[in-house]
Predict the 3D structure of the following.
Amino acid sequence: MSFLKKALAITRKDVLSELRTKEIIFSALVFTVLVIVTFNFAFSASQETTALVAPGILWVTFTFAGVLSLNRAFIPEKEENCLEGLMSSPVSREVIYVGKMLGSLLFMLIIEIIALPVFALLFNLPVFSAPLVTVTFLATVGFVAVGTLFSALAVNTKAREMVLPILFLPMVVPIIISAVKASGLALAGESWGALASWLQIIGAFDAIFLVVSFWVFAFVIEE
Amino acid sequence: MKRYILFWVSLVLMLASLFLVFVYVPTEKEMGIVQRIFYLMVPMGWLALLSFFIVFICSILYLARRRDSYDALAYSSAEVGIFATTGALIVGCLWAKPIWGVWWTWEPRLTATLVLWFIYFAYFAVRSFAGEEARGARYAAVIGIVGFVDLPIVALATTLWRGMHPGGVIFSGGLAPSMLLTLLVSLGAYTVLYVLLLVHRTSVRQDEAFINSLKARLG
């Protein structure tokens, strides 16, 4: 089997187990909607304040939902000792990384695809523009690239759920800044040109951390 | 022996830098006396970057070769580094108050330094959360590598986000010769101090490891 086929087999396993347990997507989705609603109370949502705070709300929500779902990426593997099974299977550690990463990416994208319309509905915003979708997709790739690495790391520590955000949030600061700024511009109906420099930062982050995480992942799950 | 030489070089340079900062260099025209903080803040920032670069290199070496001495070096360097980062943040706040009127602004370099502080907080946190010594060292090395790679992107993003630091002054030759001399001597003094602290801390760390291994053997 080729590298990608092996990785996709792991992704398929994650999707199957998610379809049966409905653990990650369902709870993360309810959480997402709850956060959006809660923010609505925090900022009395008039039309002007909405335009000001909407990108921030969107990305704080996605970041928390991401932490939540990434936490679940490795905890079931650890609890049922499946990680040992994966590691003793005849695939390299890199395959495991790519497989798990694609699974988490898929879950997070599904959450976002459902959450964005809800967001648009509650805040009365035009979210279905090509720039906003591109920003969301690229930023999510970056989140998941780093998140999968740290999720695998956090699962072997004492305070699992607490460790991931502590490690993860400072690392993804560039993504959060760029995503908030770029979505703000996109929601204001700016052209691609205005977004270019932010998209470049997100793109650079994605490329660098896909490669770095790919190489160091093996050191995280050995044992 | 080497440590004595280092100690004396560091002492002499430090005294020289204090003399230059407080006696020799003229008071800056617009900002006044408070500008002398500059000669402490730049070396602190430089030490933060230098020490985390050493952490980065030693982390790679540790993962590749698995020698405890690399980990001890990385750990010691990170400790000096987080001290320097904390110092840079505090001194930055002290300077911002009289000049910009506030203790804290989300100015790019301050923001980036704060993110740096959080990354290296994670570097130490992950060691205590890991449970085992060797696992903690491995995880910390991963943070040391990923965190350092992250820094340029953090710097880029925060700079694009907003800016008001007098960035180009030092390198574009806008600094008076006497100020440049003072800055360079300060940089040299703090760098030697860093090496001295690193040497001492590493040897203490190795002694700690040795004692722990003895304790483990005694049960």
Q: What stands out?
A: The mean pLDDT of chain B is 86. Chain B touches chain A at residues 63, 115, 118-119, 121-122, 125-126, 129-131, 135, 138-139, 141-143, 145-147, 149-150, 153-154, 156-158, 160-161 (CB under 8 Å). The CA atoms of residues 38 and 183 of chain B lie 8 Å apart. The radius of gyration of chain B is 19 Å.
